[in-house]
């Protein structure tokens, strides 16, 4: 392939005040950068009409869009997940799809633990209370909106045990937690006395004090965290999600937070992003939601660009890497 046309569709989250982050990509072809792209097939097709290579994070490529781009040869994901791409259609059209594994493992694992600590200690809520003057007005030297809850002795239920799930467990182990995990393949399980495999997803929900999701979105697991599974959880338990918002039925979760058995939920993702104003979790006092930023440390974003540059270089050399459809 001669010098390719490369189109980046959603670059807004990769701005840095003192860096030119796209330099590794710009060495590989003629680059056109769009901060944001509307998720309409006509808009995407127009922007990618002359592209041989496209980089996307959340801009979707369905069958209709892919059919309108006969010159497209490579889609490289600015993400690990690739559920925004119709993989079957891409394969039919001879389009290679690559992702970026492992770029955000440390960052996402750290954020997951931060969410668990917020559920247990409510640091942000107490800091805001002090800021409002509640401690100034307090007759006592100590007060709490919720007594701190120790992680020591709690059972952490991990659904999915890839690099992030295992990274979460490794960071929590010094707190004295127990761990139970479910994944169909039972790969990469740590050889720890405090770790065990669950025989089913249901067993995780029944035994864990905190359920943490670390599985990809597939056609089979959309909304699998539903009323039936939530009803199996211990009274006073928590759920954490830094994976995909569509894994959870949000109306069922809201009901479990209002009526029990859950004491709280901490989420970095929701089913529709940006969040819709009528999201049933948005105004609940015991739902702690961050705006899909678990992956977004500066080192993590720079690693993501470097992996995409390597994906493009490998493809151009005839030896594609991180291919998810071949």
From TrEMBL:
Sequence ranges assigned to domain D-isomer specific 2-hydroxyacid dehydrogenase NAD-binding in this UniProt record: 113-294
Annotated Pfam families: 2-Hacid_dh (PF00389), 2-Hacid_dh_C (PF02826)
Descriptive protein name: D-2-hydroxyacid dehydrogenase
Residues annotated as signal peptide: none
Keywords per UniProt: NAD, Oxidoreductase
PROSITE patterns: D_2_HYDROXYACID_DH_2, D_2_HYDROXYACID_DH_3
Residue ranges constituting the D-isomer specific 2-hydroxyacid dehydrogenase catalytic domain according to the UniProt record: 24-325
InterPro entries on file: D-iso_2-hydroxyacid_DH_PdxB, D-isomer_2_OHA_DH_cat_dom, D-isomer_DH_CS, D-isomer_DH_NAD-bd, NAD(P)-bd_dom_sf
Molecular function, one GO term: oxidoreductase activity, acting on the CH-OH group of donors, NAD or NADP as acceptor
Family, similarity comment: Belongs to the D-isomer specific 2-hydroxyacid dehydrogenase family.
Keyword Oxidoreductase part of the UniProt annotation: yes
């Amino acid at each position: 392939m001669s010098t390719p046309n490369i189109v980046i569709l959603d670059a807004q989250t990769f701005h840095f005040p003192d860096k030119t982050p796209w330099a590794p990509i710009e060495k590989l072809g003629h680059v056109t950068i769009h901060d944001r792209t509307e998720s309409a097939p006509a808009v995407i097709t127009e922007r990618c009409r002359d592209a041989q290579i496209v980089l996307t994070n959340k801009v979707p490529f369905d069958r209709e869009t892919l059919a309108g781009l006969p010159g497209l040869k490579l889609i490289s994901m600015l993400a690990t997940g690739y559920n925004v791409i119709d993989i079957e259609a891409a394969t039919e059209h001879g389009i290679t799809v690559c992702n970026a594994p492992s770029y955000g493992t440390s960052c996402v694992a750290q954020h997951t633990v931060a969410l668990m600590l917020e559920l247990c200690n409510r640091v942000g809520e107490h800091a805001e209370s002090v800021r409002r003057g509640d401690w100034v007005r307090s007759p006592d030297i100590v007060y709490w909106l919720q007594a701190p809850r120790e992680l020591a002795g709690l059972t952490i239920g991990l659904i999915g045990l890839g690099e992030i799930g295992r990274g979460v467990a490794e960071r929590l182990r010094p707190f004295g937690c127990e761990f139970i995990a479910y994944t169909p393949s039972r790969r990469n399980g740590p050889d720890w006395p405090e770790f065990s495999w669950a025989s089913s997803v249901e067993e995780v929900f029944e035994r864990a004090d905190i359920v943490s999701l670390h599985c990809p979105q597939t056609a089979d697991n959309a909304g699998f965290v539903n009323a039936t599974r939530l009803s199996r959880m211990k009274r006073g338990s928590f759920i954490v999600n830094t994976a995909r918002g569509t894994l959870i039925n949000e109306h069922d979760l809201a009901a479990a937070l209002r009526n029990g058995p859950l004491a709280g939920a901490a989420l970095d993702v929701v089913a529709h992003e940006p969040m819709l104003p009528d999201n049933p979790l948005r105004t609940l006092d015991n739902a702690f939601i961050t705006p899909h930023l678990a992956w977004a440390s500066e080192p993590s974003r720079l690693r993501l660009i470097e992996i995409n540059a390597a994906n493009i270089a490998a493809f151009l050399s005839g030896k594609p890497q991180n291919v998810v459809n071949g």
